[in-house]
Amino acid sequence: MQQYRKKPVVVEAVQWNGSIDSAYDIQEWAEGKIDFAKGTVAEISTLEGIMIASPGDWIIKGIKGEFYFCKPDIFEATYELADHQADNYLDYSKSVPSRVVEKVVD
Predict the structure, then answer these.
(1) Residues 6 or more apart from 50 whose CB is under 8 A from it?
(2) How many helical (H) and strand (E) elements, i.e. helices and strands, does the chain have?
(3) CA nearest to 102, candidates 83, 74, 77
(4) Among 26, 3, 8, 30, which residue's Cα sits nearest to residue 16?
(5) What span, in angstroms and rounded, lies between the C-alpha atoms of 16 and 40?
(6) pLDDT digits (tens, 9 = 90+) for 18-29
(7) Where are the domains of the chain?
(8) Which of 37, 68, 81, 91 has the CA that lies 20 to 30 A from 98?
């Protein structure tokens, strides 16, 4: 069986800190595709069904404009800060900055 390596892809990502301000910023960035109506969780409809995010989870915009969530430990294990920063990234908290990241899979 042959082995394959996933190509590195640069994606936009932001970590939700649970605040209302960050929810508004993320909802605007995600063009309303993420629902923060329940307050303590965020929801998004994906091809795999409804995904739920909690404060601290990362929200990622994929290469085709799709959004999905990622737990912090998985995010830190699979993503690293890209060599460049987006010109207009969200920055609603010094403790939880928005970042452009590059997915690296060995």
Answers:
(1) 43, 44
(2) 2, 7
(3) 83
(4) 26
(5) 11
(6) 998 999 999 999
(7) 9-103
(8) 37
Name the residue type at position 25. Answer: D
Tell me: pLDDT of 85 over 80. no
Closest CA to 98 of 2, 12, 24, 18: 12
All residues at 6 or more sequence positions from 46 whose CB lies less than 8 Å from its CB, including other chains: 66, 67, 68
User: In angstroms, what CA-CA distances link 101 with 8, 9, 38, 78, 92?
Assistant: 10, 9, 28, 10, 17
Q: Could you tell me the maximum CA-CA distance found in the chain, to the nearest angstrom?
A: 49
Q: Is pLDDT above 90 for 53?
A: yes
Question: Are 104 and 8 in contact, with CB atoms under 8 Å apart?
Answer: yes
